[in-house]
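Field reference: sequence -> structure
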Amino acid sequence: MLNLRRVERLVFWVVPLTAVLTLLIAATLAWPYPQHHPATGSIGGRLQGIGTGRVSASSSVTGKDELAHLGRVFNDAARRLRDLYATLQQSEDRLRLVIDTIPAHVWSARPDGSVDFVNRRWLETTA
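Structure field:
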């Protein structure tokens, strides 16, 4: 459970920071290039799904300049992010299955006392 929380915190901070840094670098490198460069048109569209875990498939980037290299790095980061989200989702599903199948009432609450999770057994008993 602690590892899952650590990964969630890591994803919560690393993904937005990586996206901002990538956009800043792309904007800086794209400044002297025309808008028809193969890498500039594809990066912005793919960044839209980062917050939801649905990063679109990478596109091919041609060229040997800095912007093309940035596009390849972004493709690699997007692939790794998709893998991280998939692993996180599998861990969450496995944990939810374990919590829902144990013979006990499981719940959690926030520091203010509001309940943020109850397991299936709790719902079956109270409903």
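Note: The two ends are 27 Å apart (CA to CA).
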